[in-house]
Design brief:
The protein is of the alpha+beta class. Helices cover 32% and strands 24% of the residues. A hairpin with a 5-residue loop joins strand 12 and strand 13. The structure holds adenosine-5'-diphosphate and magnesium ion.
């Protein structure tokens, strides 16, 4: 929201496509031993011995998935990587490489693309993944960024959405609803800014939820934790679209039902206070908000002692048979059928 009028602007046409790629690629180092050839040839070359390879890809489109008026480009680059790594971890795999493809209009100077890649690089360093390729093209309108993530997992250790069994525990990492509420705060401040550009946003008291929106993290630590605890989930999925829709995906793939307990859903105090402020129900936000990038998993009852004291994992319900359906058990002990009102990218609000 705060524009620096003295920013240097180097026109992308000065570098050309290959100049730009060279310029962006030169600051990236390779650290994974599975990376044989990274950027610079016709294709990347990777070697994974006997492990299985997992691959996942996502698009982020300006105006659909992000708004550059409050999303700094560096954060966008970071988030574009994170959302893909999250999918790799949801397979119980270790993320090892990414490719990044961008379509940019000439409204972006080199310095903007450098910012975007600074975010990509931060994520690569923090999560120890190599940038091994991508594609660069022009766009007539907005910015499009697509990331493909590659990972490895020991054969048989991968976890699918389809393995949940009746009586398994439904477990979630971290807490939910923050990213959605962070977006609400940012949208509100944007409106205030439009009316009075001199009005600097007051975001104290919202730092956690804004960070959840602008700088989400993928739960690499949970994959490590599960390994240390010697727990292999029976099924797993990452929470990108809201708890409700992810639970339904998992139940459908596993052909099971579930009882989810409203009073068990982990919420940060800032989520509770901000949802009150916005007159929203915090359970609805956790169920439908999206973009939390936590992991939802099912584990067998016998593994419960291994996870029960862990502050990063919360048991929120259990799996039932398919005929019972998927339900939310409310604080008032009412059973409500879960619906897939998760965040829908085809909805224009
Ligand atoms: P080609 O014409 O064969 O597609 P490119 O000139 O597009 O080759 O790419 C040359 C090298 O640069 C390849 O290794 C490619 O993966 C990499 N590359 C291209 N664009 C990007 C980008 N935006 N980010 C990272 N690597 C890129
Ligand atoms: Mg190319």
């Amino acid at each position: 929201m705060i524009e620096d009028k003295n920013q240097q602007r180097t026109d992308l046409s000065q570098l050309g496509e290959f100049g730009l790629i060279d310029h962006l690629a030169k600051s990236f180092e390779v650290t994974q031993k599975s990376t044989i050839m990274a950027i610079g040839d016709d294709a990347a070359v990777l070697e994974f011995d006997k492990d299985r390879v997992v691959v996942s890809t996502d698009f982020l489109v300006e105006g659909v998935h992000f708004d550059l008026s409050y999303m700094p480009l560096k954060h966008l680059g970071y988030k574009a990587v994170i959302v893909n790594l999250s999918d790799i971890y949801a397979m119980n795999a270790e993320a090892t490489q990414i490719t990044v493809s961008i379509a940019v209009s000439n409204r972006f100077p080199l310095e903007a693309i450098e910012e975007l890649y600074a975010g990509v690089q931060t994520a690569c360093k923090l999560y120890d993944v190599d940038l091994v390729g991508g594609d660069t093209t022009s766009s007539t309108s907005g910015l499009i960024i697509s990331v493909t993530a590659i990972g490895q997992v020991k054969t048989g250790k991968e976890v699918y959405r389809s393995g949940a069994k009746p009586n398994d525990l439904l477990v979630v990492s971290g807490d939910l609803g923050g990213a959605y509420l962070g977006l609400q705060v940012l949208e509100r401040e944007k409106e205030v800014f439009k009316v009075n550009p001199n009005n600097q946003p007051d975001l104290d008291g919202y730092t956690y939820i804004i960070e959840r929106q602008l700088k989400p993290e993928a739960r690499k630590d949970i994959i490590k934790l599960l390994e240390d605890l010697e727990v292999k989930p029976t099924a797993m999925i990452d929470i990108s679209d809201g708890l409700s829709s992810e639970i339904l995906h998992l139940c459908k793939a596993s052909k099971v039902g579930c009882d989810l307990y409203e009073n068990k859903i982990p919420l940060d105090p800032q989520v509770i206070s901000t949802s009150e402020e916005f007159n929203m129900d915090s359970t609805t936000i956790a169920l439908s908000g999206g973009e939390d990038y936590e992991l939802l998993m099912t584990i067998s009852q016998e593994d419960f002692p291994k996870i029960k004291a862990n502050p990063h994992l919360t048991v929120i319900g259990y799996i039932t048979d398919e005929a019972s359906g998927a339900h939310l058990v409310t604080r008032g002990d009412q059973k409500i059928q879960l619906t897939a009102q998760g965040w829908n990218s085809f909805e224009t609000n």
